[in-house]
Amino acid sequence: MASETLRFEATDGVAVITLNRPEALNxxxxxLSGALMExxxxxxxxxxxxxxxxxxxxxxxxxxxxxxxxxxxGNAGGGSGGGAPADFFPAHPSEPFTTFDMRKPLIAAIGGxxxxxxxxxxxxxxxxxxxxxARFGVPExxxxxxxxxxxxxxxxxxxxQAQAMEMLLTGDPIDAExxxxxxxxxxxxxxxxxxxxxxxxxxxxxxxxxxxxxxxxELAYASEDMTLPQAMRFGSSLxxxxxxxxxxxxxxxxxxxxxxxxxxxR
Length: 266
Fold this sequence. Notes:
Elements: E1 6-11, E2 14-19, H1 30-45, E3 51-56, E4 60-62, H2 67-72, E5 106-110, E6 113-115, H3 117-123, E7 127-131, E8 135-137, H4 151-158, H5 161-170, E9 174-175, H6 176-182, E10 187-189, H7 194-206, H8 210-222, H9 228-243, H10 246-256
Parallel strand pairs: 2-3, 3-5, 4-6, 5-7, 6-8, 7-10
Antiparallel strand pairs: 1-2, 8-9
Helix pairs in contact: 4-5, 8-9
């Protein structure tokens, strides 16, 4: 993660990933995208890290993908650019953040502009904490294309249909309070309290049994496409598996001994 465009700090089970192109409103260029994916892989693969916290330096979480860089490449809309059909089926496809399976909890602390690809990045997180100055939008339609990183799919699943379609078809942004009412974020706090609030949540989650946390996340997302009986059966299976772990014995033991549990992820 040797990149000036991103900072990475891990403490007490929480990794803080900070997009660091404030002069460009943290627009995601090739360098930042590569550093971000490296950081996400580290969070996923390092057992000492239990929660990721994603934020942006300066006046924005992220204003989206760097259109200046894309325009220079002749592909401002991020489309196929006239490539061959085989380009859609590469032998060694790269893994974008929009489809990356983090497995561990990922929290977004969002201040200022959260637009286009920046919003799509935030939508991949499990929780979103907004500063009171946050603004959310998908303005791609105004530029002649549309969001390609999952916003048309994820927004329709996260917030009311009418509100999602208005955002997608007009390109107009919404403010933090509107996002809270729609359920796009779970909390809105003063901007100067945003990181403290997000860190408190991340730290609390990092103290829980990590395998149980991962199982809950898997069940919550996987069950979206299941019938209720299927989802309940899958949940019972995961519950039994977690019940066999050492951490599942440590929790009740610590309660009985009136002490804090020491969860080790096994």
